[in-house]
Amino acid sequence: MTTSQTSTTAKPWDAPDAVPFMQIKNITKKFGSVVAVENVSLDVYKGEIFCLLGGSGCGKSTLLRMLSGFEVPTSGQIIIDGEDQAGVAPYDRQTNMMFQSYALFPHMTVEKNIAYGLKRDGLPKKEIATRVTDILSLVQMDGFATRKPHQLSGGQRQRVALARSLVKKPKLLMLDEPLGALDKKLREETQFELIKIQESLGVTFVVVTHDQEEAMTLSSRIGVMNKGEIVQVGTPHEIYEFPRNRFVADFIGSVNLFEGRIKEDGENHVVIASPEAGTDIYVPYAVSGVEGQQIAIAVRPEKMEISKADLGDMRNRTTGTVDEIAYMGNVSVYHVLLDSGKRVRVSQSNRTRSNEDAPTYGDRVNLGWAGRAGVVVTA
Amino acid sequence: MGQQSRFLKIVALLGFVFLYAPIVSLVIFSFNESKLVTVWGGFSTKWYAELFRDPQILEAAWVSIKIALISATLAIVIGTVGSFVLIRFKKFRTKGLLSMMITAPLVMPEVIIGLSLLLLFVAMQGLIGWPGGRGMLTIIIAHSTFGAAYAAVVIQSRLVDMDLSIEEAAQDLGARPVRVFFGVTLPVMAPALLSGWLLVFTLSLDDLVIASFVSGPGASTLPMVVFSKVRLGVSPDVNALATIIIGIVSLGIIAAALEISRSKKHGAER
C-alpha cells in the first residue's frame, strides 16, 4: 500500500527497527460473558497522536481505561516504555488521563486542581508553583488560577483539565473525547491548539473519539475499532483512501458501496459485474480474488462526477435520476437514484457562485468515476 | 389573568395561615403575663426566666442535645458506609433486599421500632449483660439506627449524582484510595453529610415515642418532660421553651437554605 502524502514527518511505524513506546499485546477484556475488547494488539510510537476511533460501545473507552489502570485486562499485556503494566495501580502509573467530563475537583481552585498531582509526588512548593504557572500560560489560562471550576466556561474547563493532566509530564497522555463537550467552532480552534501543545511538549497522546473529523485532524495514526476489535490501523490518509473493509469505508466519511462479482480477473486489472451500479466496473489494478467472488467497490462521493452532459471520458459510467440535493455552501450533495434502485451520493464543489448547467430535482444525469477513484473491499 | 392570580394569592395566604397561625399564637402567648394559657394578661418575659430556673427542663434539654449530637454523628457514619455499599459496590445478590431494609425504618411505625428495640435491649441484657439497663446509651443506639436510614437516603441521592471520574482523576494523578476518599470524595459530599446530620439531629431532638420506649430512669429527654408536663395542664413556660426551639430551628433552616442555594450555583454547571 502506498500513500502519496507529502508530509515530511517521520513515520516510525514504517521503520523496521523502530521500538514502539507503548505496546498492547493480545489484550482481551470480558465483562461477564460480554467481550468488550477482543484480542487487540497495537504499537504506538513516541510523540504520536494516536486516535482510537469507533462508535459507542466499540470498546475504545474500555481499552483506554485498561491503559490507565482502571480496568484489569482479562488477558494480554500492556507495555509502556519498556515496563509491563500488569498489577500497576492507576496511582502508580506514569500516565495521565484527561476525562471526558473533565473531572475537575469542584471544591478546589484552578491552581489547586493543577497542583494536586504534583503535591502527590511530594515536589517542593516552589517548583509546584512554577510548574503550575508555566502550564497555565501554555494553555492560555493565566489569570484564572484562583477561580473555581464552576466559574469557568466549558472551553476554559477543558483547558484546565488538559493542564492538570499534562503538568506531571506523563509518559503517555490519554484523552477521552477531549473536545466532545465543546461547540463546533471552539472544537475546530482547539484541535489545532491541542496539536501545537502536543508538539511543544513531545508527550505521546492516545485519544479516544467517536468523531471521525476530530480523529482525522488530530492524529498521526488512527485505529478504527468495531465490536471490540481493531479493524484497521493507518494514517488518516490511508484510512480514508484505502479502507480495508466495508465497515471502515462506511464509518469514515460517506461512501457509495457497489456490491458485485469479479467477472474478469486480469493481471493488472479486474472487471466487476455490478447490477447494483448498473454497469461493469473497471478497476485498473490487480485484486487478490477469484472469478465469481463476491466483492464490493467503494467510491467516495467527491470522487464521482455528475452531469447532464455525456461523461464519455470517464472509465466507469452509469445513469440515474436526481432525487435530492443538499446545498451545503462549499459543496452540493446530490442523491441520485440509479435504475437499479440504489441510492448514490455525489458531491460537487461549488466553484462558481451559480451554475445554470447544474442538475436539479428529477433530472436524468450521467454519473462517472475514474478507474482509480474506487477502492475494492473484499471483507 | 388578574382574577386568577388573586385567587392563587388568597389560596397561598390561607395555606400559610393554616401552617403558621398556631406557631405564631404560641410565640405570642409565650410572652403572656397571665398564668392561664388562653387569656392574654399583658406582655412579660417571666416564663422565660421561670424556664431557666426549672432544673428538670434544663437537665432534659441537656440530655436531649447530647443524645442528638451523638446519634446524628453515628447515623452519618453508618449512613455513609451503607450508601457506599449500595451505590458503589457492584451488583451483589442481596443488594435489593439491603436497599429496602435500610430505608424500611422510614415507613415503619415508631411504636413498632420502639417496642422491638426495647425487646432487643432487654434480651441482650439477659444474654450478654450489655447494654446494662436502659438510659441515654439505649436512646442513642435507637436514634442512630433510625437516623441512619434518613442519613442514607440523603447521602445516597448525592452519591448517585456524583461524577465517578472525579475520584478516578484523583487516583490517576497519584492519590491512593484513602487519600482520594478524604481529599476528594468527602469534600464533594460534604453538603449532603451536613444536611443529613442536621436532619437526624432534628429528628432525634424531636422524638418522643421511641425514646419513651427505650429510655430508663434518669434519662428523660426534653420531649418526654414536656409531654409529661402538658399532661398535667399546659403551663406557659412550655410555650417559652417552644419559642426558643422554634428560634433555633429557624436559624438552622435559614443557614441550610443559604448553603443549598450557594452549592446549587456551584453544582449547576457540573
Provide keyphrases for this structure:
heterodimer, A: 379 residues, alpha+beta, Rossmann fold, OB fold (Dihydrolipoamide Acetyltransferase, E2P), six-stranded mixed β-sheet, five-stranded antiparallel β-sheet, 20 strands, B: 270 residues, mainly alpha, MetI-like fold, 11 helices, globular
Could you please describe the fold and organization of this structure?
The complex is a heterodimer of chains A (379) and B (270). With 379 residues, chain A is of the alpha+beta class. In chain A, helix 2 (110-120) packs across helix 3 (125-138), helix 2 packs parallel to helix 4 (154-166) and helix 3 (125-138) packs across helix 4. Chain A has helices at residues 60-68, 110-120, 125-138, 154-166, 184-201, 212-218, 236-241, 246-251; strands spanning 22-31, 34-44, 49-53, 75-80, 83-84, 95-98, 172-176, 204-209, 221-226, 229-234, 256-265, 270-274, 279-283, 294-299, 305-307, 316-327, 331-338, 343-349, 364-369, 375-377. Chain A folds into two domains: 22-249, Rossmann fold, CATH 3.40.50.300; 254-377, OB fold (Dihydrolipoamide Acetyltransferase, E2P), CATH 2.40.50. Chain A contains eight helices and 20 strands. Chain B has helices at 2-30, 46-53, 55-88, 95-107, 110-128, 136-161, 164-172, 177-206, 209-214, 222-231, 236-267. In chain B, helix 1 crosses helix 11, helix 3 (55-88) packs across helix 10 (222-231) and helix 7 runs antiparallel to helix 8. The radius of gyration of chain B is 23 Å and the shape is globular. Chain A binds chain B through residues 68, 70, 89-93, 95-97, 99-101, 103-107, 116-117, 120-121, 148, 150, 164-165, 168, and chain B through 163, 165-166, 168-176, 179, 184, 187-188, 190, 265-270.
